[in-house]
Amino acid sequence: MEWYLPVIWAGLIGTAVAMYVILDGFDLGIGILFPFARNETQRDQMMRSIAPFWDGNETWLVLGGGGLWVAFPMAYAIIMPALYLPVIVMLLALVFRGVAFEFRTVSDSKVWWNFAFTFGSLLAAFSQGVILGGLIQGIKVENGQFAGGHLDWATPFALLCGAALVCGYALLGATFLIMKTEGEVAERARGQAKILLLGVLAFMAVVSLYTPYAFERIATRWFSLPNFYYLWPVPLVTALVSYLLWRWLGTERDSLPFVATIVLFLLGYLGLVISSYPYLVPPSLTVWDTAAAPASQIFMLIGTVFLLPIILGYVVFVYWLFRGKVREGEAYH
After folding, report:
1. How far apart are the first and last CA of the chain?
2. φ, ψ of residue 114 in degrees (nearest 5)
3. Within the chain, what is the greatest distance between any pair of CA atoms?
4. Is 329 among the domain residues?
5. Measured distance CA(146)–CA(167) in Å, rounded
6. Residue 29 included in any domain
7. Domain with 211 in it: what CATH number?
8. pLDDT classification of 332: cutoffs 50, 70, 90
9. Is residue 209 part of a domain?
C-alpha cells in the first residue's frame, strides 16, 4: 500500500471536518442564541444573517462522512456502530433544524418553529461534541471489529465535550452576529461573546488537563521529550489569541472577533489532531490500518481533486456576494 495515500485522505477528511465545524458552527450557534433575542424582529434579523449560507455549510459534513466511508471503510465500520446513537440524533436534529428554518419564514405563528430551530441546533451541537468525546476516549476493537457496547460513548467526559461544543458554537454564532448585524442584536452578541469566551476557555482547560491524566497515550504525546519542546507553543498561542479576542470584543472592531474565534477553534482542533494522529480509531487503529485499497483511494481522489475547487469556489462566491451587514427590519430576499 502506498503510504502517502491514507495521509492525503486523512488530510482531506480533516480539512472537511474543520470547514464544517467553522462554517456550520456559527449558524448552529445562532440557533443556540435564538431564545435570547428580545422579539421576532430581532430573530428575523438573526435568521437573515445566515440565510444565504446555512444549507451550503453542511456540504462539508457530507464530504467528511463520505470520505471516511470511501477511504477508510474499516474505520467507518467501527466508528458507526460505536457511536450510532449520537450520530443518528445529530442527523435528525439537523433535519429538524432545516425544516424549522424553511417553515418559519412562511408561518403565521413562529413560536413552535423558533423552538424547533433552537432545539435542533442545540441537540446537533451537543451530539457532535459527544461524538468527539467518544472518539477521544477510544473505541474497543477486537479482530478489526467493534467489540464494545452501544452505550460505551455515554461517559461524563463525552457529555462534557458535548457541553463544550455547545458553548463553542454559541461563541462562533455571537461573533458572527457582531460581524454581520447592526443595532441591538450586534451589541447584545458582543456581551454574550465575552461570557461565552470565558466558558470556552474553562472547558478547554478542563479537557486539556483531564485528557493527559486519563489517557496515557495523550500524556506521552504531549509531555515526553523532545515532543514537549515542539508542542509548547500551541497552548501559548491559544492564550494569546484568547487575550486578543477579549480585547477586540471591547472595541468597535466587528470582523476581528469572528476571525479570532475561528483561529481559537483551529488551535483546539490542532491540539486534538496532535493528541490522536495517526490513530483514526483510537487507541488501536491507524490511518494505514483502516485504509481502503490504493486503487479505490486513487479513483476517488481524482474525483475529489475536481470537486473540491468547485466547492471552495462556491463558498467564496456566496460569502462575497452576500457580504455586508444585515439591518434590523430588512425584508427577506
Report:
1. 52
2. -60, -45
3. 63
4. no
5. 31
6. yes
7. 1.20.1630
8. very low
9. yes
Residue 51 three-state SS: coil
**To the nearest whole percent, how much of the chain has pLDDT over 70?**
98
What residues make up the domain containing 132? 4-321
* Residue 141 bridge partners (DSSP): 146
H helix or E strand, kind and range, residue 302: helix 294-321
Q: What is the pLDDT of residues 265-302, one digit of tens each?
A: 999 999 999 988 889 998 888 999 999 988 889 988 99
- How many domains, in total, are found in the chain? 1
pLDDT of amino acid 177: 95
Directed axis angle between helix 256-276 and helix 233-249, to 10°?
A: 160
Beta strands in the chain (DSSP E): 141-142, 145-146, 279-281, 285-286
Is residue 86 exposed (0-12), middle (13-18) or buried (19+ Cβ within 10 Å)? buried
Q: How far is CA 91 from CA 54, 94, 97, 150, in A?
A: 15, 5, 10, 18
The contacts of residue 314 (CB under 8 Å, 6+ apart) are: 56
The predicted structure's pLDDT at residue 329: 65
Cell triple for residue 174? 455571537
Amino acid 330: pLDDT? 62
Residue 326 lies in a domain: no
Q: Report d(CA 333, CA 322) in Å as an integer.
A: 11
CA angle 166, 172, 177 (to 5 degrees): 125
pLDDT over 70 (residue 22)? yes
**Which helix or strand (DSSP H or E) is residue 138 part of?**
none
- Rounded to 5 degrees, what angle do the CA atoms 147, 149, 153 make? 110
Q: Give me 236's grid cell.
A: 501559548
Q: Are 237 and 249 in contact (CB under 8 A)?
A: no
36 CA to centre of own chain: 22
41-79 residue pLDDT tens: 899 899 989 888 887 788 888 888 888 988 999 999 999
Question: Which cell numbers in the block locate residue 168?
Answer: 463553542
